Amino acid sequence: MVGVSEMGAVKPLLAAAAGRRPERRPVWFMRQAGRSLPEYRALRADRGMLEACFDPAMVTEITLQPVRRHDTDGAILFSDIVVPLKAAGIDLDIVAGTGPVIAHPVRTAADVAAIARLEPDAVGAVAAAVSMLRAELDPTPTALIGFAGAPFTLASYLIEGGPSRHYAHTKAMMYGNPELWHDLMGRLVDITVTFLRVQIQAGVQAVQLFDSWAGMLSRRDYEQYVAPHSTRVFAELDGAGAGGAAIPRIHFGVGTGELLVPMARVGADVVGVDWRVPLQEAIGRIGPGPALQGNLDPTVLFAGDEVIAAHVARVIDDADHAIAAGARGHIFNLGHGVLPDTDPDTITRVVDLVHSA
Ligand SMILES: Cc1c2[nH]c(c1CCC(=O)O)Cc1[nH]c(c(CCC(=O)O)c1C)Cc1[nH]c(c(CCC(=O)O)c1C)Cc1[nH]c(c(C)c1CCC(=O)O)C2
């Protein structure tokens, strides 16, 4: 049965997202798979990042590595936000230490018109990995989380051509040519929805939409240029689970304290909060309803056991206040991804602290 562990209990992460009482407080970490783990570095030593993302056995193994090591309640599918763009035919690579690099940045109407739809078969390797992962994870308490980049964050990589500090080209198109901007965003919604539907049909049990860089926008700009598109992503996933079941939708961005209200409104069941806003304050801004995910500062993991324990306890206390103020539940996480130099034993200790709190 979906979402049910060996002991017959609902998986803690799915219970928390649905407003039910989890057997233990669920915890997972953004970027839990990856360079913090020696077993990941060994596997990836002679394989490119994108090559690994299209190899179902590699995806399965890398996804499971942090679950085995840390006993996390979430297994985040090993992939990348640019995987569906690559599969839709966009020439790009993921460069170690840099991130996604786009061969021909998208700047003109012709560039936008050339962005094709994603054929579900082009991400068949991802679907195959999801099936393999469900077989491994079903007897455990761990839920499988799929993900995609949100249209704004994907657009920012496509337009800038790579990582950016100021997003000047992105904003220039958004402000200067809104019609072209909305055309591009509409195409990215279609790609994102296809990618997430493939994952859901193959068996992911929750999805996270990463709008990592949305925090660069004012609330007014977010509502005008981004919210309608992210709303469509979430709306098109309504009842997309097996037999029309609802799949919990997590919405996350960095530096989004000013955007928590519109980011919740686009249709999130769980709102991811970075470390800047205490969780009870986040729910105060959003209003009662969604569950919250977060929000330990990833750099705290370098500060030593005593400091870490105090910060973990504070996040849990904040979360309990948030629940008293109307949050449906809490999923413990960092406020952003695990930094590559993090000692993996520290992460295991945080999981133990959260589970025993
Ligand atoms: C913005 C973004 C990207 N990718 C992603 C986001 C949104 C999350 C966020 O805000 O951090 C999402 C992502 N990327 C990766 C995952 C896998 C699952 C996990 O979280 O464990 C997830 C969820 C693997 C990855 N994606 C990447 C790596 C490192 C590549 C490597 O190991 O060589 C991994 C494990 C590459 C990548 N891809 C991207 C960046 C910024 C980088 C890092 C560049 C670097 O520091 O090398 C784009």
From TrEMBL:
<protein>
    <recommendedName>
        <fullName>Uroporphyrinogen decarboxylase</fullName>
        <ecNumber>4.1.1.37</ecNumber>
    </recommendedName>
</protein>
<feature type="binding site">
    <location>
        <begin position="31"/>
        <end position="35"/>
    </location>
    <ligand>
        <name>substrate</name>
    </ligand>
</feature>
<comment type="similarity">
    <text>Belongs to the uroporphyrinogen decarboxylase family.</text>
</comment>
<comment type="pathway">
    <text>Porphyrin-containing compound metabolism; protoporphyrin-IX biosynthesis; coproporphyrinogen-III from 5-aminolevulinate: step 4/4.</text>
</comment>
<feature type="domain" description="Uroporphyrinogen decarboxylase (URO-D)">
    <location>
        <begin position="145"/>
        <end position="161"/>
    </location>
</feature>
<dbReference type="GO" id="GO:0005829">
    <property type="term" value="C:cytosol"/>
</dbReference>
<keyword id="KW-0456">Lyase</keyword>
<comment type="subunit">
    <text>Homodimer.</text>
</comment>
<feature type="binding site">
    <location>
        <position position="157"/>
    </location>
    <ligand>
        <name>substrate</name>
    </ligand>
</feature>
<dbReference type="InterPro" id="IPR000257">
    <property type="entry name" value="Uroporphyrinogen_deCOase"/>
</dbReference>
<keyword id="KW-0627">Porphyrin biosynthesis</keyword>
<comment type="function">
    <text>Catalyzes the decarboxylation of four acetate groups of uroporphyrinogen-III to yield coproporphyrinogen-III.</text>
</comment>
<feature type="site" description="Transition state stabilizer">
    <location>
        <position position="80"/>
    </location>
</feature>
<dbReference type="InterPro" id="IPR006361">
    <property type="entry name" value="Uroporphyrinogen_deCO2ase_HemE"/>
</dbReference>
<feature type="binding site">
    <location>
        <position position="80"/>
    </location>
    <ligand>
        <name>substrate</name>
    </ligand>
</feature>
<dbReference type="GO" id="GO:0006782">
    <property type="term" value="P:protoporphyrinogen IX biosynthetic process"/>
</dbReference>
<feature type="binding site">
    <location>
        <position position="336"/>
    </location>
    <ligand>
        <name>substrate</name>
    </ligand>
</feature>
<keyword id="KW-0210">Decarboxylase</keyword>
<feature type="domain" description="Uroporphyrinogen decarboxylase (URO-D)">
    <location>
        <begin position="26"/>
        <end position="35"/>
    </location>
</feature>
<feature type="binding site">
    <location>
        <position position="212"/>
    </location>
    <ligand>
        <name>substrate</name>
    </ligand>
</feature>
<dbReference type="Pfam" id="PF01208">
    <property type="entry name" value="URO-D"/>
</dbReference>
<dbReference type="InterPro" id="IPR038071">
    <property type="entry name" value="UROD/MetE-like_sf"/>
</dbReference>
<dbReference type="GO" id="GO:0004853">
    <property type="term" value="F:uroporphyrinogen decarboxylase activity"/>
</dbReference>
<keyword id="KW-0963">Cytoplasm</keyword>
